[in-house]
Every structure is written in structure tokens, then in C-alpha cells.
Amino acid sequence: MKSFEVRTHPSSEAFPREEQLAWRIAEVAADPVDVAPEVVEMIVNRVIDNAAVAVASIGRAPVIAARGQALAHPFSPGSSVFGVTDRVSPEWAAWANGVAVRELDYHDTFLAAEYSHPGDNIPPILAVAQHAGRGGTDLVRGIATGYEIQIDLAKAISLHAHKIDHVAHLGPSAAAGIGTLLGLDPGVTFQAIGQALHTTTATRQSRKGEISTWKAYAPAFAGKMAVEAVDRAMRGQTSPSPIWEGEDGVIAWLLDGPEARYEVSLPGAGEAKRAILDSFTKEHSAEYQAQAWIDLARRLHAEHPELADPANVDRIVLHTSHHTHNVIGSGANDPQKYDPAASRETLDHSVPYIFAVALQDGAWDHVASYAPERAARPDTVALWRRITTVDDPEWTRRYHSNDLREKAFGGRMEAVLTDGSTVVDEIAVADAHPLGARPFARADYAAKFRMLADGVLAADEIERFLGLAERLPELTPDEVRSLNVVAESALPAAPKGLF
């Protein structure tokens, strides 16, 4: 990897575009380096994973609305939308499928200086591949770039510290991935990256307080903007430049300010794009920083059943990272995180709620665990309100460690019972994590798809899709166009809007 200093440059300074971060990313996108076999294997896994969680959300209100918007924009050859046979304009397919993938917060993640769900790159890159008639080899290369750039940016530049939503890294990464897919000249991809970043910087209020349905739409919007930015750049249109480093650019006014310095590492010429291997998927439908806590709660349910009864519990304190404490823990100071009437989007960002339910049930379900009647159960509410989080310096250090062998997303639980006894236990990573108790492999991804597709897709449709996905690098353009699923029954019609 090559490291570059990224800082603000005044307009009066001659700052060649070849030294700008957007250009360096465009050069990575244009590098025709082969994709390593283990990276191809993981890309196949994540295509399956994305489809699994999209199918599971296909009847949920935000996905119905997004699909309705997309279907109002038919196009030929166009791109496919999860669940139906219609073809639509690629930016609208990226939009609808992006919402379906993100709705349940159930796909892959990478956490470092910034949060990210790098699987969000797949819907826009796949949509353009289908529309442009690209085969599996090009699609794999595009996805490898999307993951690489988003993860490299997440390692180097914190957005959340300035209350900027993490999708500001996704717009540029998706644009870069599409540039790789299409084999665009770096000059074109450079302009698309600048436009994609410029149009996808927004505040983190979409993930604060009473969280709305926009949480699922935000990354889909970034993917849609990336597709449109590539289209404009291909037509010769230009973007604000330098977008990160300009005097009135992103660093100077949205991030650490005019004196800031960032070190961004990107693959050098001829160096394989391997960042996808640093990411990890979810076994459970909840924010990633809750995954390990669910697994610990399931274990404690069997080993210490007394913890499930609030009558036995004085308090439970989860010692965890700064991020977990402040984003999904009591450190967020969001009363909604303890509200039994809160939205599903809010509950999946409340580790006190998640830990309470998993502790009582010994399991986690993407539907039942969030049901209003489950959240309102009196004994659950009583236990839930006895659970708090604290920012533990050691778990924060491990969260930020660049050594993947010690990087951790869990913590230590300390329970004080009403009889004065204590229960203490800890977990570093989720069971499904590459270093966890049961790391996810191809069979687990396929099993997740079959489980979530059951009752939504016909059995032969499930196996057809899995068969295609597992041959991803070999697919012809026509097969890439059929890399979609069609629901067994008619899907709900979308509410009426403008279109």
C-alpha cells in the first residue's frame, strides 16, 4: 500500500490534480490488476449475502416505496429490481436495491476510524453492469474496487467525529467501482468521484434519536448519486476540484479543518485490491457493534438463566468501546433507546434493548425480536432499563487497533444481582467474525440466503440464484442480467407518489 498525505490547499496554490485524492483513487480504479482468488471467493459470498437480506426485506414499507419509485422509471436494456421481472433505469435500480439491502441492517460491515457497510457498493455496480452488458469478470473487478476504496477511506478519515454520515465515503467508492467495471479513463472517474462526494455529504441525524426510514435510504441515495455522477462525467461534465483538499472543500469545512492532515493508504500500481477480506458480515439483524453482545447474551442465557429475570438483577453494565457506547449505547443520551414504542430502526441501534432480548430469549430473530409486542413486554422493559454501557479505554483501544488479531467489537459484561452476587463475562468478536467461534464460510452464506428466502422465493428460484452467484466470475452479460430474484407471489403495490 502507498500512503499519501491529504490536506487542505489554498486556491492560490498550484495543486495539480494528479496529487489530489480523487485522482489517486481514480488511478486505483483504472489499474487492470487481477483479482486474487480469495477475494473472488469473498465477493461471491457478499453477493449472496446482499441478496439474502434484500429478499428478507422485500415486503417492508421502505422497500415497497423505493421499488415503486424505481418501477416508475422503466428502461431498456436497463437493470433489474429485486423481486420483480421489470427493467428500470440503472440509477433507479441502484436506489431500490440499495434500500432493500440496507433496510434490515443485516449485511457486511467494516469499522475503523469510520463506520461502513461496504456491501452497499454492490447494488449500484451491479445495476450498471446489467445495463451496460458487462460480464462477471468485469463485475467482480468493479466490486473489488468499491470495497477497496470505501474501506481505505474508512481506515483513514473519520466522518462521524464531525457528525457527517458515513455514506460520504460510499459515493466516491461506488463511483470508483463503476469506473473499474466500465474501464473508464482516470480523468472520467476522477470527475465522477468528485461529484459523488459533493452530493453525498449529509449529517448523522439520520442515525440519531428517533431513527427514521431514511436510515435505509441514505446509502441507496449515495449509490444512485454515484451512477448519475458517472453518467455526467462520461458526457464530459466536471466536478468541484479539489473536492477533499480545496480551500472550501470537505476537509476544510466538514471535517478536521484547514490545518488537518490525513494519511490515506491505497494500493500501488499492480497491487491487488484485498480490502474486502478485512470486512465481516452479520449473523444477526442488528447494528454490527451489537453482534458480539448478542452472541454473549445467547451463551449467558444457557449458563446463567437467572439473568433473564429482572427481579434477580440490580444492574448490568457493558464495558465497551467509545463508538459502541456513544452510538448504540447509553452514551448516546437518546431516551428513545429505552423506549418500548421506539421504531425498529431505533431498536436495532440500542444495545441495551438487544442485549436484554437476547438474554431472555437465547436467540435473535430479524422479525420477532423487534416486534412491538416483544419490545413492550413488561419484564423485558424492566431488564432493559437496568442495562447501561460505559466507555472502556482498553476496549476502545482494541476497537481502533490496526492489528486484526486484536481488533475487537465486543466488551466485558458485569452484572450485579439483587442478592449481591456478580456475573462477569466478556467477548471480543462475534461468533461469525473471521476470528470468532464459528466464522462464516460459503455454506453459512448460502444457508442465510435459504433461510431468509424461504416463503418469499420458490425453491427452484433459490437454487437458480445460488448457482448463478457461485459462478460469478464466469457469467456472461446475459447471465449477469439474470442475477436477480423474482418473488413467488405478487408483491405489495407502492403507495402513490409523484411518479
TrEMBL record:
One Pfam family it belongs to: MmgE_PrpD_C
MmgE/PrpD N-terminal domain sequence ranges: 19-262
Residue ranges occupied by any MmgE/PrpD C-terminal domain in the UniProt entry: 284-469
Top-level division of the source organism's lineage: Bacteria
Protein family per UniProt: Belongs to the PrpD family.
Name of this chain's protein: 2-methylcitrate dehydratase
The organism of origin for this protein: Pseudolysinimonas kribbensis
